[in-house]
Amino acid sequence: MGRRDAPKDGDRRVGRRALLIGGTAAAVGSAVLARDELARAWWRVPGVDKPRRPGEVDYAGARWVAASEANWRRADRPADYGIDRVVVHVTQGSFASAVQVFQDPEHGAAAHYIVRKDGRVTQMIRELDVAFHAGNRDYNERSVGIEHEGFVERPQDFTDEMYEASARLTARICARYGIAVDREHIVGHAEVPGTDHTDPGGDWDWDRYLRLVRRARTARA
């Protein structure tokens, strides 16, 4: 879990890919790939009023539980901030305790998603918005944060159900924003510059996780 960022929008910038539309996708032979690319292109168009219906989620398998508005900043991603990272966290506690602190306005931090040991996914912040999860403003603006229920020193907390559910979620995020499935773009909280956190820890199986993400991405395509 990250530190509070200074919630200022003075340095908002438009990503270079914000003006992309579906031209590239139209040239792709596969109708499935073209449809996915067109969907992502629409999501990048600046000025598009992206839907914000109460309780709506970005990932179809997720349940919505809102984080405190003090723990995130409203944005229009990826039109204003390009998304090119997924940051993997571990809660260092139970699912219930993570929800409690993310709903606490004094906590100053929250992630977009929490994945439970049983594989259930909860979304607490829209991907459109900047969650204060990484302890680094630039990374917060460009990433989606995923918490995982458990403790870094308890590898048994990282269940098969958790790995598989998280991999499907990450695969969908990577497909939506064109993020490469590799260790440069899918990182641990401990790898964020300036952080003092150690999660997801040495027992998180990165080789297995990336293999599952790639499999889920391929299966969807």
From TrEMBL:
One of its GO terms (molecular function) is N-acetylmuramoyl-L-alanine amidase activity. Residues 72-201 form the N-acetylmuramoyl-L-alanine amidase domain. InterPro entries: Amidase/PGRP_sf (IPR036505), Amidase_domain (IPR002502), NAMLAA_amidase_2 (IPR051206), TAT_signal (IPR006311). PROSITE patterns: TAT. Coiled coil: none annotated. It is an enzyme of class 3 (hydrolase). GO terms for biological process: cell wall organization; peptidoglycan catabolic process; peptidoglycan turnover. The keyword Transcription does not apply. Its EC number is 3.5.1.28. SMART domains: Ami_2. Keywords: Cell wall biogenesis/degradation, Hydrolase. It catalyses: Hydrolyzes the link between N-acetylmuramoyl residues and L-amino acid residues in certain cell-wall glycopeptides. PANTHER family: N-ACETYLMURAMOYL-L-ALANINE AMIDASE AMID. This is N-acetylmuramoyl-L-alanine amidase. It comes from Streptomyces zinciresistens K42.
